[in-house]
Design brief:
Blueprint: E1 2-7, E2 19-26, H1 31-39, E3 48-59, H2 61-76, E4 80-84, H3 88-96, E5 104-106, H4 109-119
Parallel strand pairs: 2-3, 3-4, 4-5
Antiparallel strand pairs: 1-2
Helix pairs in contact: 1-2
InterPro entries: Anti-sigma_ant (IPR003658), STAS_dom (IPR002645), STAS_dom_sf (IPR036513)
Family: Belongs to the anti-sigma-factor antagonist family.
GO molecular function, one term: anti-sigma factor antagonist activity
Length: 120
């Protein structure tokens, strides 16, 4: 798994929405690396964080646990987490286990960023 912060650790402008791209497999072997990286990213109250999952090829229950933790942390900070560009298989899995009722999703990263910027 590779993750890349596309924006947000040092926003170029105040209030910029952080975007993190997650690629490859998110599983037991590497979920802790993503968790640690996301803890370092500041989530503004009234804003949030976008996870670009367009290149995520696999996510097991450990990865889902990391995503739930990030969601809870964002809410505790007064912000939101939006999952962007999930593939069909992951979207279907989220729907089957009811996570589509918990997570906010958008079909594109741009739409997710716009959603959070307009909410603030």
């Amino acid at each position: 798994m590779i993750f890349r912060v596309l924006s947000g650790t040092s926003p170029a402008r105040p209030g910029e929405v952080p975007v993190v791209q997650v690629t490859g497999e998110l599983d037991f072997h590497n979920a802790a690396r993503l968790r640690e990286a996301l803890v370092a990213i500041h989530v503004d109250s009234g804003k949030g964080l976008v996870l670009d999952l367009s290149e995520l090829t696999y996510c097991d229950s450990t990865g889902i646990t990391v995503l739930i933790g990030v969601h809870q942390r964002a809410e505790a900070a007064g912000g939101r987490l939006v999952l962007a560009a999930m593939n069909t298989e992951l979207s279907r899995t989220f729907a089957m286990i009811g996570l589509d009722q918990i997570f906010s999703t958008e079909p594109s990263v741009e739409g997710a960023v716009e959603r959070l910027e307009s909410a603030g």
